[in-house]
Design brief:
The protein has about 500 residues and is mostly helical. The chain has two domains: about 200 residues, Fumarase/aspartase (N-terminal domain) (Fumarase C, Chain B, domain 1, Orthogonal Bundle); about 290 residues, Up-down Bundle (Fumarase C, Chain A, domain 2). Helices cover about 55% and strands about 5% of the residues. A three-stranded antiparallel sheet has the order 4-6-7. A two-stranded parallel ribbon has the order 1-2. A two-stranded antiparallel sheet has the order 3-5. Strand 1, helix 1 and strand 2 form a beta-alpha-beta unit. The longest helix is centred in the C-terminal third of the chain and has 33 residues. The chain starts with a strand and ends in a 5-residue tail after the last helix. It is an enzyme of class 4 (lyase). It comes from Staphylococcus americanisciuri. It catalyses: L-histidine = trans-urocanate + NH4(+).
């Protein structure tokens, strides 16, 4: 698969396909022409000895310090070295790879003054899967993701560490082995690489891709629980959802009916009870609202994926040339979206935990054994799995606190308001992993519950899911180390991608 980058049309589905098919990137000719035009503007600035931030001056509080012409290139390398002070565990290789794609795409808009050599170096790293090791912590999410993107840039100049062919190696050693030279940064290029929101945006893209898939998986897991509890299908009738006006809610109701079609375990209102509890009856409303969040976040991320978020920005239409210092590197729009994403994901976990509680609680599960134990009293069964789920959703409530409501001034108060969007992005992925484990627990417990209720009654589609999961996790015939089951099912949910 070839992903053509234009600077204008990159979509999240493109990234999903690129990662799934292990694609390569190529660049359109018109994008390269824009890059060359913006670079020519930088060269004219240098030739005319103009005072332009980050090209002929220092950075941040040093923006009033003029730099000697012979040191313009040294200034850019010093910028990368000094700013590469991220700490903590590295971003995943997928996130780092997407970070490079997003950075390349924004340079191709032609407002950053990059050279063609830098463009080709980024393309080479992406296509050869030379992936920078980028620590997760250290970004304030304004002035760009400075620390993470500096680690990305270090690899390009042969001074950082990279993942390559399953190993962590020095970038220079990898480049030497491939017969490829490290890039020599020119004036403006260090700044062009690190002013931007690509760390928070890349992590947000990966989280959203997995969150959307998990949202669809939550439906067949909920359908198993619905059948184990002899749930009422009337609540999913399309007439109810049509009059609410939310398309995401209507879509969830439609999919739930599809999962449950042909089931002998479901009921109609008035057969066993008049109404189900909210955790069954309101699945379309609750899950649908999370999909509303996902759609909002997708829109904002795709705006940013195709944005010029460098500083200063270069505008040259042939008749007029402008080089303007602004603040497109400020991560506030992305930070808000990623904080919203955390809430949408957290609620999928919250409702899942309440459903699985009903499965194990003998006062609520309609005659199933307490904790689905094979020998109540001697065997604890699923008792502590519910504890674990409760712990995870409680942790998510802390992680879902918006990072974007905080700000700490930096650069001697020159950069006096920041977004903290990268913190929100990191916490969002932690929430996603917690929710995936909660849904794995619900799946394990629901498998056991429908066994006890009678497998012959399952709908055909959920029976197929049951059979797949039973290849991963066996029936509970006696107590065992359930943490292994949770891990195996969570890994399955991550590996298998679902889309509507």
């Amino acid at each position: 698969m070839i992903l053509y980058l234009t600077g204008e049309q990159l979509r999240i589905d493109d990234i999903r396909t690129f990662l799934h098919q292990e694609g390569i990137v190529d660049i359109t000719e018109d994008a390269l022409e824009r890059v060359q035009a913006s670079r020519a503007t930088v060269e004219r600035i240098i030739a005319n000895k103009e005072t332009i931030y980050g090209i002929t001056t220092g950075f941040g509080l040093f923006s009033d310090v003029l730099i000697d012409a012979e040191k313009y290139n040294e200034l850019q390398v010093n910028l990368i070295r000094s700013h590469a002070c991220g700490i903590g565990e590295p971003f995943s290789q997928d996130v780092a790879l997407v970070m490079m794609i997003l950075r390349l795409n924004t340079l191709l808009k032609g407002h950053s003054g990059a050279t063609i050599d830098l463009i080709r170096q980024l393309q080479y790293f992406i296509n050869k899967r030379i992936i920078p090791v980028i620590p997760q912590q250290g970004s304030l999410g304004a002035s760009g993701d400075l620390a993470p993107l500096s680690h990305l840039a270090l690899a390009l100049i042969g001074e950082g560490e990279v993942y390559y062919q399953g190993q962590v190696l020095d970038s220079l050693d990898v480049l030497n082995g491939l017969g490829r030279a490290p890039i020599a940064l020119q004036a403006k290029e260090g700044l062009a690489l690190i002013n931007g929101t690509q760390a928070m945006t890349a992590q947000g893209v990966i989280t959203l891709i997995e969150a959307e898939s998990l949202g669809y998986q939550a439906e067949w897991i909920a359908a198993l629980t619905h059948q184990a509890l002899r749930g009422i299908t009337d609540a999913y009738h399309p007439a109810i959802h049509k009059v609410r006006n939310f398309p995401e809610q209507t879509a969830v109701a439609r999919r739930m009916l599809d999962w449950l079609e042909g089931s002998k375990l479901t009921t109609k209102q008035g057969e066993l009870r008049v109404q189900d509890p909210y955790t069954l009856r309101c699945i379309p409303q609750i899950h649908g609202a999370s999909f509303q969040v996902f759609n909002y976040v997708r829109e904002k991320l795709e705006c940013e994926m195709n944005a010029a978020n460098d500083n200063p920005l270069i505008f040259d239409d042939g008749d007029e040339r402008l080089v303007i210092s602004g603040g497109n590197f400020h991560g506030q729009p992305v930070a808000f979206a990623l904080d919203f994403l955390k809430i949408g994901m957290s609620e999928l976990g919250n409702v899942s935990e309440r459903r699985l509680e009903r499965l194990v609680n003998p006062q609520l599960n309609g005659g199933l054994p307490a904790f689905l134990s094979p020998e109540p009293g001697l065997q604890s069964g699923a008792m502590i799995m519910q504890y674990v789920a409760a712990s995870l959703v409680s942790e998510n409530k802390t992680l879902a606190h918006p990072a974007s409501v905080d700000s700490i001034p930096s650069s001697a108060n020159q950069e006096d308001h920041v977004s903290m969007g990268t913190i929100g992005a990191r916490h969002g992925y932690q929430i996603l992993e917690n929710v995936r484990r909660v849904l794995a627990i619900e799946a394990i417990i629901a498998l056991q519950a429908v066994e006890l209720r009678g497998l012959d009654g399952l709908s055909p589609k959920t029976r197929a899911q049951y059979d797949k999961l039973r290849e991963i996790v066996p029936s509970i015939t006696e107590d065992r180390q359930f943490h292994k089951d949770i891990t195996h099912v969570a890994n399955y949910l991550q590996k298998v991608s679902y889309q509507d």
